[in-house]
């Protein structure tokens, strides 16, 4: 498809992320418009549609996808609703940007992989936006030059101010560490083969019963280790940091030192408070890249396979969290469509 018209996008789910993507497509992105929004909460869908010229509001994803002016779909409903929306998009053979996680577990993610294979071509980009963040892109580029030698370890820190009320202990892995799982696979070009989850005493700042923080160790088929401190009720800020330790040096991102102040006997800066702030540019670049590729008739970026691989690693991580110890990742064979 080499399009002159702006791409008409249906946004499924108009909560925090979906509404932000609607604003982005409407005001920031070139070559696209929000043609329809969908939410099981009809009032929410209507309120979001009301702010966008020519946008219709729906409660049923299938009705929106069948609309004549819908050319592509952005899925931003909760993870458990993704599989149904993806399969409906495949019925209409529509290009999709699906927010992470692709689906919440490996079996459903594999069903999506199989359904896309049955179509015979890639249709999905998964919303692992770190691949579009300027700092992650620089780190990846540096590692790719080989100047620092072979990466031996990655140290990751992922901290949220507070978790939402529905957050469970396994979701620290499937919803949050999923980002580091993808970043590790992408930065190193390795598959993750085993996961160990260590459980320090929960923070008194975490809701009763939530295992927060957790310390996750990922082993890769290239012999590297990637550790992740996940702490979703740290209380003070949104921090995402990564340090690569290589044979001849280290490289670190995410210190947030863009602006440092010195005043009244102190020095300091500010800490971002959530992902919409920290990754604003990454989301813009992610969606623009998706729109541009879709208008050229191409599919780029993290694939359904990447979404499945992350789900399989997270599933092993959840078993490691529940039973303690180390759990090997059970990964299906990679189909030719994704090689
Ligand atoms: N990439 C990132 O950094 C990032 C950040 C936050 C959230 N997310 C992802 O975005 C997605 C949405 O998260 P959120 O924080 O916006 O959640 P949210 O709870 O704020 O919003 C979800 C919305 O989807 C609606 N919904 C529920 N089931 C639906 C269905 N079957 N069809 C249509 N709408 C439905 C809900 O009514 C709600 O309005 C999740 O997959 C989440 O993991 C990604
Ligand atoms: O769904 C959100 C989102 O993916 C954020 O990027 C992450 O920092 C949060 O931990 C997670 O709950």
Automatic annotation (TrEMBL):
<comment type="similarity">
    <text>Belongs to the Gfo/Idh/MocA family.</text>
</comment>
<dbReference type="Pfam" id="PF02894">
    <property type="entry name" value="GFO_IDH_MocA_C"/>
</dbReference>
<dbReference type="InterPro" id="IPR023794">
    <property type="entry name" value="MI/DCI_dehydrogenase"/>
</dbReference>
<feature type="domain" description="Gfo/Idh/MocA-like oxidoreductase C-terminal">
    <location>
        <begin position="140"/>
        <end position="329"/>
    </location>
</feature>
<keyword id="KW-0560">Oxidoreductase</keyword>
<dbReference type="GO" id="GO:0000166">
    <property type="term" value="F:nucleotide binding"/>
</dbReference>
<dbReference type="InterPro" id="IPR036291">
    <property type="entry name" value="NAD(P)-bd_dom_sf"/>
</dbReference>
<protein>
    <recommendedName>
        <fullName>Inositol 2-dehydrogenase</fullName>
        <ecNumber>1.1.1.18</ecNumber>
    </recommendedName>
</protein>
<dbReference type="InterPro" id="IPR004104">
    <property type="entry name" value="Gfo/Idh/MocA-like_OxRdtase_C"/>
</dbReference>
<comment type="function">
    <text>Involved in the oxidation of myo-inositol (MI) to 2-keto-myo-inositol (2KMI or 2-inosose).</text>
</comment>
<feature type="domain" description="Gfo/Idh/MocA-like oxidoreductase N-terminal">
    <location>
        <begin position="8"/>
        <end position="128"/>
    </location>
</feature>
<dbReference type="GO" id="GO:0050112">
    <property type="term" value="F:inositol 2-dehydrogenase (NAD+) activity"/>
</dbReference>
<dbReference type="Pfam" id="PF01408">
    <property type="entry name" value="GFO_IDH_MocA"/>
</dbReference>
<comment type="subunit">
    <text>Homotetramer.</text>
</comment>
<dbReference type="InterPro" id="IPR050424">
    <property type="entry name" value="Gfo-Idh-MocA_inositol_DH"/>
</dbReference>
<dbReference type="GO" id="GO:0019310">
    <property type="term" value="P:inositol catabolic process"/>
</dbReference>
<keyword id="KW-0520">NAD</keyword>
<dbReference type="InterPro" id="IPR000683">
    <property type="entry name" value="Gfo/Idh/MocA-like_OxRdtase_N"/>
</dbReference>
